Structure formats: structure tokens, C-alpha cells
Amino acid sequence: MKKLFLWIIYFLLSLIFLLPFIGIFLNSMNFKMWEYVLKSGKTYDSLMTTLLVVIITMFINFIIGTPIASFMARENFRGKMFIEFLIILPLIIPTMVSTMGIQFAFIKLNLIETALGVAIVHSVTTMPYYIQSMRAGYVTLNKDYINLGKVLGANAIERFLKITLPIIYPSFLVGMSLVIIVSLAQYLVTFIIGGGQIMTLPILMMPYLVDGGITNGTVYSIIYVAFTYFLVFLVDRIVKNIYRKREY
Length: 248
Description:
The chain has about 250 residues and is mainly alpha-helical. The chain is about 85% helix and about 0% strand.
């Protein structure tokens, strides 16, 4: 009975998650389209632009979101509920509304049609996910470990790399993975702030999907999925190598 139940679960999960991807894969079985996409310079330019935007977005999330997550997890203070509301506010306000408000400010700051401007807007969208993920990790971190690092003379960076990161690594990976996934999924805000000049992979891919170019669109969709998995895997490897080297 237990095995039957597990098989039913496996079947349903496969149906939900794999069936759409199988359809995309079958529709992409056109070698001429693969040749066209892989030989196109726009494909590689969009991948490099997407990588640049994601890296800047991850950096902004790390620099701003990490101390906020640490503070919110460890401290109790008056007005904490209000701060928590502000953190999740970008998820409540419609993306179009917030982006249009940001656009006017970015025009004055000359951040329109720049990778930095797009990354900042992506950070607004991804920051709640990163903070909540890191906050869950910091809740499990015993303050005594940090205090012991201070006693042994470790500075803030050393304490994070040698003590904090190895302990909260799963939360950090989840947070960064969500940053990557959500950032890559941003089409509308990228188009508005980038003005069509910041050609990320979703910007390049979308016209093929909406104008009936289903074959090219499915090829770009597979590249999109593979690129997302590659970035998540790369972050995982880099972080593991960092704190493993710190152990020696």
C-alpha cells in the first residue's frame, strides 16, 4: 500500500513538473533552429547581459539583505512588525506600479537603460525572498558561536565565512537560488527600466513566444532552463569551495 501511494505521488509530481518540459523539448527538435540560435550573436550577448544583471542583483541582495536578515532574526524591538511589513511590501504592491514609480527616479539618476538600473529593480523584487530565507537560517545560529569567534580575534568577514556560512549554508543557497530564479523571470520590469536596450535572455526569448515563433521560442526556453540550473549549481560550488578552503 505504501509503495502504491509513493508511485502515485511520483506519477503526479512527474505529470505536473516534467510534462510541460517534455512538450517544450519535443517542440524544439528542429536542428536548423538550434543551429540558428547557437550561431546568433544575440544569444551569447543576452546570456552575458543576463549574467551581469544576476551577479549585480545577487551582490545587492547579499550586501543589504544579509545584515537585515541577521538583525531581524536575533533582535526583538518595538516596531519590528512594521519592518517585517516593509520587507514583504514589494510582494504585495503590483510590480507594474512599483516599477513605474522607480522609473521616474531612475530617469533623473541616469539609471534607465543600464544593467545597474535593471539589477536594482530586480533586487527590489528578490530581496524579500532572500531576507526570509536567510532569516530562517540565522534563527538556527547560536550566538555563542559568533561570540567565540570574537574572542578568538576573528573579524566580521572571517566570522561570516568560517562560522556563519557553513552553519546557515542551506538557507543561503535557497535564498540565492530564489534571487537567480526570480531575477531571470523578470520580463516586464526589465523591459521598462532597460528600455529594450538591456537584452537579457527573457527579453530576447519573449517575442518568439508571442509572435508564433514557437520553435525558436522553445529552443530559447531550454537554454533558459539550462542557464538557470547552471547558475544555481555554480553558486553552490563556489560557496562550498569558499568555506572548505577556510577550514584548512
